[in-house]
Amino acid sequence: LKLCPFAWTLRYFAKEVRAYNTLRDRGCFIIPTIHAFVFERSEEQVIGFICDGFEGLYPELDDYEACKRGLQQFHSYGIVHGDVNKFNFIVTAEGIRLFDLETSTLDIDEGVSEQDFKRLQEEELEILKEKLCDPEEWGKPWEPF
């Protein structure tokens, strides 16, 4: 379940839903599938979605090559993730899975040239190793007490 609790997060939520739907239409299966939307008061007021959960572990530095291959495969569908912290990857029995696409960029987005898009993809690959061993654990999910 992913919720959009605040008005200021709506644009990120919309971007994420658009990315998931576009990637699914393009045949990408390394992302979760959205199964339902959560409404408040009426169908016009979407406040979240329900999607697949993945069984697996967050990657460590030893998983770098697998994560790199997964990210390259992800890029082949015409997307830049936008936030490649280790907590947006899951190492599963079926391979690497990616999620949390609220800061992603699609190759069909307005205002992004083909050259800029390729540069963003390259930059993401260049910082991946650093992100996998980030000592601050930026992006770590909140855990209740």
Biggest beta sheet summary: 3 strands, antiparallel
Q: What percentage of the residues does DSSP assign to strands (E)?
A: 15-25%
What is the strand tally?
A: 7
Low-pLDDT segments: none
- The third-level CATH topology is Transferase(Phosphotransferase), domain 1
What is the CA–CA distance across the termini?
20 Å
Q: Going across the major beta sheet, what is the strand order?
A: 1-3-2
> Tally the helices: what do you get?
3
Tally of structural domains = 1
What is the ordering of alpha helices and beta strands?
A: EHEEHEEEEH
Helix content: 25-40%
CATH class wording = Mainly Alpha
CATH architecture: Orthogonal Bundle
What integer is the average pLDDT? 94
| Radius of gyration based on Cα positions | 15 Å
**Principal-axes shape call:** globular
Let me know the CATH homologous superfamily.
Transferase(Phosphotransferase) domain 1
State the secondary-structure class: alpha+beta
Overall description:
By secondary structure, the chain is an alpha+beta fold. It has one domain (2-132): Transferase(Phosphotransferase), domain 1 (Orthogonal Bundle). It is built from three helices and seven strands; from the N terminus they run βαββαββββα. The protein has helices at 10-25, 64-75, 114-132; strands spanning 2-3, 34-40, 42-51, 79-80, 89-92, 95-98, 105-106. It has a three-stranded antiparallel beta sheet. The longest helix is centred in the last third of the chain and has 19 residues, at 114-132. The radius of gyration is 15 Å and the shape is globular. The protein starts with a strand and ends in a 13-residue tail after the last helix. The mean pLDDT is 94. This is Aminoglycoside phosphotransferase domain-containing protein.
